[in-house]
Amino acid sequence: MLTACIAFAVVAALMTITPGVDTMLVLRTTVTSGRRTGYLASVGVVTGLLCWAAASAAGLTALLAASRVAFDVLRVAGACYLLWLGGQALWRNRRKVRDGEDAPDTSVSGLTALRVGLTSNLLNPKVGVFYMSMLPQFIPDGAPTFATSMLFGVIHVLEGLLWLLVVVLAAGAARGVLTRPAVKRRLQQVTGVAFIGFGVRVAVER
User: Which residues constitute the signal peptide according to the record (predicted)?
Assistant: First the structure.
């Protein structure tokens, strides 16, 4: 069991540190709203991971693999949400600049950050596919499926939380530079385009 946990932890860690929606979301939230709000966005993301882990252990994510309709519904919903996040970032930035202000006020409340982190993760079909396709490969013969799946899920959640905390700390340390008006506007533009890019990729991938 120990060998299986280590092997899964390595694979999950590689997936965790690969730049994606969750990392971009937490980075943007920390820069615009501070470390506390970044931490809450991170909690939202890892709560989504925990939900996926529980669904996988219960066999619910098998629906994504077995049903093209279910997968497509989740994929389209996730793509639309990412496109909305990207479009909202670009629109707010454009509107504030046109009004003559130095930088857009894009800060959000902690509750909003928590909700956005949770929603973006739950609407990402790739997370469900990861749990459905990867977890069973690491479960040793004879090991209890539900308990082992939840154990792997907890490992992934802890890795995800650790990584996002590093992102928050790094972004918080650089916040003095990143919140300068010109830099902040550029960051908003980059993250908006990135979210739209992620949304398009989710929408067209099969």
Answer: none
